[in-house]
Amino acid sequence: RGVLPSGAAQGRLWQNIVCVGRNYAEHAKEMGSALPAEPLFFLKPSSAYVREGSPIVRPYYCRNLHHEVELGVVIGRRAQAVPQDAAMEHVAGYALCLDMTARDTQEECKKKGLPWTLAKGFGSSCPVSDFVPKEKIPDPHKLQIWLKVNGKMRQEGDTSSMIFSIPYLISYISHIFTLEEGDLILTGSPKGVGSVEANDEIEAGIRDVLSMRFKVLRPKYTF
Ligand SMILES: CC(=O)CC(=O)C(=O)O
Ligand SMILES: [Mg+2]
């Protein structure tokens, strides 16, 4: 296909956001987490998207906002219970994404056995780059993704290090719920996640493909 998902025509590039966690061994290690035997995933609301030009706003309850740079896979065709060997036919393309995380909130949620929605699903928690049609990425498992804060390199990862491959993830998720055209799968963060403060500038990229910049703002209101 290689065309923009139809949602783009309505000014809304992508729809559901499905995030995969602990998909890079070194990131699981830095978080003190065990390697997953099966994909761990969670959802963000579609209102979590932000595009370049709009800021990332730290949620009022968060004291430790973390960046996680991740490759996003954009679904181009409905996928319901698809086998791995047909999964890539459902991909329209890719995007670079940030899985912004209220890390202190996530730690509290983990301790209490609560869901991660407050930590992962706040407004502006999913900055996304421009859409890259799949024809421009011959092998999505051979990409270098990186992230700098105020010009200093924080994360450098290679998508070849993913524990679960993109076809495996699409197949796995599509056996749990139907993936629709325009849905975006965040494939997990490599190591090097860390804090950002108000007025920091995050720059991130897929080497030789694209880069993007976002500014971090403090919340307008605290309660
Ligand atoms: C520990 C996490 O926050 C999981 C996650 O989002 C990841 O990318 O890994
Ligand atoms: Mg993540």
UniProtKB/TrEMBL annotation:
It comes from Serinus canaria. The keyword Metal-binding applies. Its EC number is 3.7.1.5, 4.1.1.112, 5.3.2.2. InterPro entries: Fumarylacetoacetase-like_C (IPR011234), Fumarylacetoacetase_C_sf (IPR036663). The lineage of its organism: Eukaryota, Metazoa, Chordata, Craniata, Vertebrata. One of its GO terms (cellular component) is mitochondrion. Keywords: Metal-binding. The gene is FAHD1. One of its GO terms (biological process) is carboxylic acid metabolic process. Residues 17-216 form the Fumarylacetoacetase-like C-terminal domain. It catalyses: acetylpyruvate + H2O = acetate + pyruvate + H(+); 3-fumarylpyruvate + H2O = fumarate + pyruvate + H(+); oxaloacetate = enol-oxaloacetate; oxaloacetate + H(+) = pyruvate + CO2. This is Oxaloacetate tautomerase FAHD1, mitochondrial. Belongs to the FAH family. One of its GO terms (molecular function) is oxaloacetate tautomerase activity.
